[in-house]
Amino acid sequence: xxxxxxxxxxAVEFIKDGMIVGLxxxxxxxxxxxxxxxxxxxxLSVKAIATSNQSEDLARELGISLLSTAEIETIDITIDGxxxxxxxxxxxxxxxxxxxxxxxVAASSKQLIIIVDESKLVxxxxxxxxxxxxxxxxxxxxxNKLRKLGAEPxxxxxxxxxxxxxxGNYIADCHFGKIDRPDELHHALNLIxxxxxxxxxxxxxxxxxxxxxxxxxxxxxx
Length: 222
Description:
Layout: H1 2-12, E1 20-23, H2 27-41, E2 47-50, H3 53-61, E3 65-66, E4 75-80, E5 84-85, E6 91-92, H4 99-107, E7 109-117, E8 130-134, H5 139-148, E9 152-155, E10 157-158, E11 161-162, E12 170-175, H6 182-190, E13 195-198, E14 200-201, E15 207-211, E16 217-221
Parallel strand pairs: 1-2, 1-4, 2-3, 4-7, 7-15
Antiparallel strand pairs: 5-6, 6-14, 8-12, 8-13, 9-12, 10-11, 15-16
């Protein structure tokens, strides 16, 4: 937890007065939002757009001014976590269930700063199951098509009930094993009717900031 916090606090140093900031979702993004809230109390003037109801609620609680998507064209900086980051900065995201909103916000951002602890840095994507957001209608057919692509899909659940995203969709967590060509897999997944989007973020990160258990932070820039 400490390594996540120090990486998040380093990322927040990039935020300047007057910026529009994208707020990620998940345990690492939580620390970034907390730090932004602290800086707002100290006089930082920013406006933000959240990638989940959870992050939106936290931002409101901390006094961070929020915008709707109708009020923006571009976002200056988005700070978010990732479930895996490979050597080419391809990402797997969606463990927190917000991959679609995260991708919409990331695609509109001038800078996407990814904050992780060292355990999320991998040589090759695929150990973490790839989240795929799918519509509820005909989900059994969609899951079968995912299986035909080589996945072992599992419908995410809370107890006995399917997990619902903030968009009212399901998530299939797909075990592909090692992902050799993430760009090709991303394209193939999104061609399946019923798939809304998937958790592969290809070539979107502009910074990766990793926190280590020894208290150090390593920052990489493109």
